Batch of 4 targets.
Target 1
Amino acid sequence: MRTSAPTVVVGVDGSKAAGDAARWAVDEAVGRDIPLRLVYVVESSHPVGAEVGAGGHATARSALRDAQRAVEATGKPVQVETEILTGKPLVVLVEESRAAAMICVGALGLNHAQHGVGSLAASLAASALCPVAVIRRAPGQPADHRVSRVVVEADNAALLRCAFDEARLRRAPLRALSVAASAGPDNADGKRLAQAELSRRIAPWARLYPDVPVESVVVRGTVEKYLAADGESDQLFVTDSRVCRELCGATNAKHSVLAFRFGNL
């Protein structure tokens, strides 16, 4: 297992979702000036590095070639590495996270039929030693996977910084959310106070990132419900791994998610 220079790792399994994740990850690697590492994990109960049958190798090589072609089709200058590994996908990818700057997976890839939609992605976000991006492309969404907006809940300064960094990288606007205390719809004073507090929280970051357009929105209920009701599907929600678990498991989820563990921020 490689533990030297950092890379952006993409979990590849031959699915369209994995190709989406690979294309999405290109900007992450280019922005950091590090290689993009495409990894195919052959499901096995044997230790990582064990011998894989010829059929397993052929399937893995084909999937990696498809993912590499998807990356090359972006036309962006990124160095690509590929490797076939064996073991349990979650265990292998967590081990990869020791040296990775980020791990990217497709929302419906990595044998989701066996493990349940989003379960591996959510478990990976909770266990990885680096940020985890779970990429979801809605039907009809362009293959270049441009991020229309970065969304973040503005109650954590570390997550705000990560969200502003991502918005700058993606040349996308940022929407900062705050959940208002439960109150009636006519509580105008409470809404004004919540909006003023939200504006105060994001003002220092807006000054540090003058190139990132920012808007602030006070929502009621939960951020998860707000996102579920939002009609735009090409947004990126920056959050922590606990929220990622719920979003990855939701069958009606529409957003890509970039998850951080608080201990790694």
Target 2
Amino acid sequence: MGYVLSLDEGTTSTRAVIFTEDGRTVAQSSQEFTQHFPRGGWVEHDPLEIWRTSRQVIGSALGKAQLTGADIACVGVTNQRETTVVWDASTGRPIYPAIVWQDTRGSEYVEQLSENADDIAAITGLPVNTYFSAIKLMWILDHVEGARARAEKGELRFGTIDAWLLFNLTGEHVTDVTNASRTMLMDIRTGQWSQHMLDLTGIPEHLLPRICPSVGELGTVRSNQLLSGTAVTGVLGDQQSAAFGQVCFSPGDTKVTFGTGCFLLTNTGTEIVRSNHGLVSTVAYQIADGPLQYALEGSIAVAGSLVQWLRDNLGVISSSEQVETLAASVEDSGGVFFVPAFAGLFAPRWRPDARGTIVGMTGFTTAAHIARAALDSTAFQAAEVVDALVSDVGTDLRAIRVDGGMSVNDAFLQFQSDILSTPVVRPKETESTAVGASFAAGVGAGLYSHGDVASLWRKDREFVPHMDSRTREHLRARWNEAVERSLNWEH
């Protein structure tokens, strides 16, 4: 039997998971890496630490499975998107820390590009926002000494995290179409870099990696690596990978991932659907030389990372796992609402001026109520994104598939179903991001066909709504009032 290894590089940790050909987990290993916050609104990672943890978890997973690199048929890669790395083309050394997708620097470039916002949305499917890689890359070129001159001479390379990992694994400077679609530099209609966007941003084209399909061979692991000679045959940005793992292959198929952030993605087939309600048009995947498949996406900056914040910044819990027990010790949030707008609000509001807010506290409020409000905040934000999606596509969703770390929490998923008034379905394997990369790699390596993948998905449990409509409407109205109080804090 051949095995597939997924390298899943998230925002807070790196994971390697080894799967059998039929999608069952054999072994996994994960390791957190350091989050750097050099000033308010700035979030950075060390690219070398990311690469080091990647090598370590690959070795650890192989050891746990008692396998060698020769047992691995193919490799899939999935990654935090938009995070931006620039490195020296000859030495492979980064010239600056990775600027993370959550980072909000670069507002001057947003202002500069905003007069072209309609053109940019038509070309890239994206709003002009510090979230996307082009803004981060513009900042590096202008603020790191000598970077722009070196870039224009062809001495530097840019990549999102997939490209950084692939460069180190294979020596190739490539990216896949889903990651490229999040840079604000790619024309989503053609799947190629947009010359107009390069002209608007002043970014030299030879900085950029070659864009490849998500499914198909993107390179072969170099001889000095544990997986030497193994082909990398699937690469997807993390949210597209989760959708692939949840087999969202038909128009209308929808998943929500509760990870560091919360991300809804619904398949729109070969049609680019333009949103009028704050969602973005993006690429879902591309198989070999087949047509581009598209999606509508809603992104929420803070979900699972709020639990880490309760642990690391407030000390309310000593481990992330404790939040479920603490939150479950009270019947509800006691009238407390937590708007975690630490980096502004993303979809559907797109309000960079918002900041984190806790409202409704009284002398009765305990840490348990705050923990419950923190979990509830993700459900409320997800419901706003679903509302936007329904408005855009014109039909209600039959059900939503969910995954990610928070999806193991039954009480949270029940509350999510109640607030949505929609069934919520959890798969057997909740780490759908890693599953999706393995499915993509398996298809790319010819282990099975795209059509075979749907039969590999397995349901664990379905949560159906029980909350009465009056209670639901009251809670959502109070949430909206709390959000209004979070606005206009950052000018």
Target 3
Amino acid sequence: MVLSLVAKKPSYGYEIIKDIQEASSGLYVPSPGVIYPTLTLLEEQGFLESQIVERNRKSFSITPEGAEHLAQNKETEAVIVRKLAKARDLQHGGNLAEDIETAVNRFKALLRHKMVLKQLNEEQTRQIASIINDAVKQIEEVNALLTDNDDE
């Protein structure tokens, strides 16, 4: 997937993270700890090359060897693209249970993106915890209403 994205346009690591997040409609957000080692590996294998550009950021582009490797693995790329399309479809029109599952998966992906969480100050941390606790309370209230209706 990373090789495929870079083949479309030279990219920075964070651009690739955002492209994957967008392609999966937010269901999967790879962490920098996944993307940067992958970029390094692809570069060491000769599939990508990098150059330092603005503000000392590395921009990656595909090499002829990388393009050949991508061409040889079109089936794998097609499977990934189909799975991402299915994720988008679920995100934008699944049944109600799938809507909840999708929301939970997006929430988990956000929490796994530890770099974002590490950058929070104390007030932001408290605010997010409050939002989460409020959401849990609201879900419990909805569940209590459903449980009361079942008893009738």
Target 4
Amino acid sequence: MVPESNVSVNSICYKRPSSTYVNNSKKYLIPERTFERQYASLYASRLRITTDLLLCQIRRKWGPAANFKRLCDVEGDETAVVVGTIFKHMELHPSILKEISEEQNLIPQPVTNVFTTEDDYLILEDNLQRVVICGNIDPHAHVTGVNIALKGHTDESGKFFVDDFCYPYAHDPDPLPSLTEDKYVLLVSGLTVGNASAAFPLQMLIDLIKGDLGEEKDLQKFSRLVRVIIAGNSINHDEAELFKGRFLARKTRPATIDNVKELDNFISQIVETVDVDLMPGEFDPSNHLLPQQPLHPCMFPKSAAFSTFHVVTNPYDSTIDGVKFFGSSGQNIKDISSFSKLRSPTDVLEKTLDWCHMIPTAPDTLNCYPYFDEDPFIISKYPNVYFSGNASKMEYRFNDTKKVLMVAIPQFKDTFSALMLNLRTLEVEPIVVCDEVC
């Protein structure tokens, strides 16, 4: 239970409501790290766990009499249902061999953030066999690592011709709690503290949260704020500084140290009145492999003095007043967009819900910890709110089928905006602290 706090402005006292909070991210903590294992065990665990979820969906879609077989047992042109992991063959797929050849000036590689071409095709593989698949399935809407059930037959060329397909089955989210009053959670990402152009908007955001800025309706709304979630990329990263630190002989003071101090100053002003969850992001001083571990509290001496300051993992999983929040700092969404033709952030979020996996492209194109006998990124039960930080644009929409609110949080440094989410109604309101020329 979070204690109540007051927001006082111009002799008017607004009482901030209390809220309940449960951190569900324990599965993303890695107490003992070992890198002696291969990633094959992660793919095997993923397929083993999701096969049970796929069998539920197979029975629901094609009936209990569906001819379910392993790939190696499919004979001739019989119609069968097979289960496996998708591998997407891409000519532009990054490869260490291509990188080496580029370093040796043998074959220059094109610089691109999108690796799809019209010649991409899919391969299905299980523990024993792999086969090229074709037919009623779009390669550009899938990525490597997705577990899927296919209904079809083997054609004369030896390819598996797909008539229909289905994804794993996940349980519906818990019903929303019956809250009697409005309570809000603020979602923000890409603060890039240390960027001079964002200094003034960041101060305005502080003043809004603390109740030092805005009209009476704004003060009333922000007084109902019970939590702030900062979804990664909180400090400024300068590519030029990274280049200098790597290649110049003279040692200079890294800008990261000063930026972390500024971030501590920023958060310490907010945690005086409201709880803050700080997630690491792609460019933050945290481990590179997913799941990213919480930033160490010693980096934030001013903020860590408050019980309302919380360092959390990326991915993020918590329950706030009975509403389950699940999300990431955006690396997974960015990576899936690069290896498919899915461009809208909420479209990618929806696909990961369909696939019942948050980061299917890990470890193929997104680095992750080599788990053994488990895969914590599998979505076996849908959350109420599913978010992604550092998106290319602000988007949010409700999936009526899965009953999930999908939220793409834009980078604050580009839009000077955040989102306020009402826990009682799941309504989202964009918060623009200033325009681009402020």
